[in-house]
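Quick one, probably user error.
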């Protein structure tokens, strides 16, 4: 029996490392020698089941079904084999039309297999969920979007819905998704053109394309990616994302989205979405929502003028549209979104590079001061990063609390401002180790859902030295390496990344001769603050005062914190952000620099005694203005 054990162990190792072809060959070797090795029926059934899984993972569905069937014949009580065969039948249904007999046959087989698996293992939650999903698909033939209801929806909303569903940036998504994204955008653009050329035919076309997308979403199966599998975090299939985008876009526009709620909840559970991600406008692309808002601002006359400018620059075909047409329901929106998709298709527009659209708007003829003001307002919108979605962004806080009085106050302050007021998703990591940091870079921030956040904010609060952030237990992490690694995740490509680094950058003070409030420093092994006394001085300005990376202090210099409130930098920045809705982040930091540099600190620190100032600063490679998100209403 030793050869069986050796081959089995090797096969399982190969299976674990996803070398399915090699594992299949080893399982086949054992099965060829089944008689010689005197396998029991139960043992042989397990090997057929395992080989079936290898074949299933290689998308050899027919061969997998054969193996699962042989396993069931050998051991009719092997629940896993029924579940696995049912899974294959279930997946086969996804590519078939609801009306085909083949789909109904496979669905019935899947239901029977799932029910058998549940009867044999009634406590297995995965088996129960599989049966539930299958029954949902079985009943979906009656879940058709009513054409008459779609026809009753104003064309304006239908056009907006189709525009919100797609991302026109050709680099968006994974390499596997990009061809699908591009095809979807081009189909939508062609529908917009159809509406502009023939209103009645185009209205029929947009209803058909929305029905087609709805039908695909209501019918597809998502059973193959379970929440506990290795591929869960990084391999959400595109249809899951499309489902949530469709549902949230409908909700955003006030369109009833029939029959999707149960399936949406199932996908949300699988993707481990928090409450804000479930309830907010999260999976709708911010750049699309911004263009939707801009479209609402523009008059039909301005959109008509924009078309003339675009045609004069030889973009798109020679489309003939009259101003009178644009006064009809949905035609202004259709033309504007058609122009946007044309610019994107010509690589002249995406969420960051909007200069060409700005130039075209500036070239538009305005007939009155109101239209002129509208153009100026729209251009201001386009010079800022899109920030339309909720949650407003992701905020990750790394805070060393060990040996730092006031650290909990810092955490509470950041969480209150970013989570409760600004509407960010906040994740707190106390006393982060190097392993914690690497886990965020290599795993946590690779999750698909983070691709839908409009911005990310990183806080690192600790002691510091000239080049390092000080971790617990006297460990260090290079400051520049931290910034570099957390700037690279592709999910935040073309989005603002803001670093707040609240620590000393050296051991030198900015000395003054008088005054001071008791304070300690955020340098390594330094004393902490005592109590706060108001003490401002505006007569002394250090000569160095006057991406986005915001530092609590200048290079080589000390930063101060107080015993109860913690970092002065954290406290002042948070207090300013709390009342800076729609204000540029750089303006907030300029104010913080001024306020902090007014303060004089005094210390009895062994390495520094006397009176000093703190001078925070920032560096930026922002391409647009990042405005502090609109403050959430307090309940």
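Nope, works fine. Designed sequence:
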């Amino acid at each position: 029996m030793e050869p069986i054990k050796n081959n089995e162990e090797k096969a399982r190792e190969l299976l674990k490392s996803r070398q399915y072809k090699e594992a299949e060959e080893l399982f086949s070797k054992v099965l060829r020698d089944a008689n010689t090795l005197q396998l029991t029926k139960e043992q042989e059934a397990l090997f057929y089941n395992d080989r079936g899984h290898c074949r299933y993972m290689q998308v050899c569905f027919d061969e997998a079904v054969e193996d699962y069937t042989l396993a069931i014949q050998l051991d009719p009580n092997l629940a896993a084999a029924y579940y696995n065969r049912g899974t294959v039948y279930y997946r086969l249904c996804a590519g078939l039309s609801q009306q085909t007999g083949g789909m109904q046959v496979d669905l019935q087989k899947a239901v029977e297999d799932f029910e058998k698996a549940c009867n044999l293992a009634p406590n297995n939650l995965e088996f129960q969920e599989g049966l539930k999903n299958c029954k949902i698909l079985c009943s979906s033939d009656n879940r058709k979007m009513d054409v008459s209801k779609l026809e009753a929806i104003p064309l304006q909303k239908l056009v907006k819905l189709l525009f919100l569903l797609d991302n026109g940036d050709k680099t968006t998504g994974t390499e596997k998704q990009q061809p699908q994204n591009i095809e979807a955008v081009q189909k939508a653009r062609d529908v917009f053109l159809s509406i502009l050329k023939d209103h009645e035919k185009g209205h029929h076309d947009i209803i058909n394309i929305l029905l087609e997308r709805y039908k695909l979403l209501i019918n597809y199966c998502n059973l193959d990616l379970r929440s506990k599998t290795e591929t869960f975090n990084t391999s959400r299939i595109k249809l899951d994302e499309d489902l949530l985008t469709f549902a949230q876009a409908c909700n955003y526009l006030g369109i009833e989205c029939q029959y999707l709620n149960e399936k949406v909840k199932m996908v949300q559970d699988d993707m481990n979405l928090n409450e804000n991600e479930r309830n907010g406008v999260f999976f709708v692309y911010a750049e699309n929502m911004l263009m939707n808002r801009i479209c609402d601002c523009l008059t039909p006359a301005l959109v008509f003028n924009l078309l003339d400018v675009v045609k004069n620059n030889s973009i798109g075909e020679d489309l003939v549209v009259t101003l009178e047409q644009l006064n009809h329901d949905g035609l202004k929106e259709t033309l504007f979104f058609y122009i946007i998709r044309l610019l994107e298709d010509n690589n002249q527009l995406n969420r960051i590079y909007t200069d060409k659209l700005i130039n075209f708007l500036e070239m538009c003829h305005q007939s009155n001061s109101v239209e002129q003001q509208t153009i100026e307002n729209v251009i201001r919108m386009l010079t800022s990063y899109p920030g339309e979605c909720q949650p407003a962004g992701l905020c990750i806080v790394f805070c060393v609390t060990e040996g730092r009085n006031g650290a909990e106050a810092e955490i509470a302050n950041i969480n209150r401002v970013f989570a409760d007021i600004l509407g960010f998703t906040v994740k707190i990591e106390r006393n982060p180790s190097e392993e914690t940091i690497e886990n965020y870079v290599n795993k946590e921030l690779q999750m698909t859902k983070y691709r839908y956040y409009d911005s990310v904010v990183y806080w690192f609060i600790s002691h510091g030295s000239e080049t390092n952030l000080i971790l617990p237990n006297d460990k260090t992490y290079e400051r520049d390496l931290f910034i570099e690694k957390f700037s690279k995740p592709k999910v935040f490509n073309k989005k603002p990344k803001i670093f707040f680094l609240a620590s000393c950058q050296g051991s030198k003070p900015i000395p003054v001769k008088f005054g001071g409030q008791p304070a300690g420093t955020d340098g390594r092994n330094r004393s902490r603050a005592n109590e706060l006394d108001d003490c401002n001085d505006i007569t002394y300005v250090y000569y160095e005062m006057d991406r986005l990376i915001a530092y609590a202090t200048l290079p080589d210099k000390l930063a101060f914190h107080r015993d109860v409130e913690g970092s002065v930098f954290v406290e002042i920045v948070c207090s300013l952000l709390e009342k800076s809705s729609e204000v540029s982040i750089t303006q907030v930091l300029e104010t913080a620099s001024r306020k902090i540099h007014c303060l004089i600190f005094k210390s009895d620190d062994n390495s520094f005694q006397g009176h000093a100032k703190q001078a925070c600063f920032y560096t930026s490679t922002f391409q647009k203005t990042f405005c502090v998100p609109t403050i959430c209403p307090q309940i």
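Residues 95-101, 222-236, 523-533, 542-546 have pLDDT under 50 and may be disordered.
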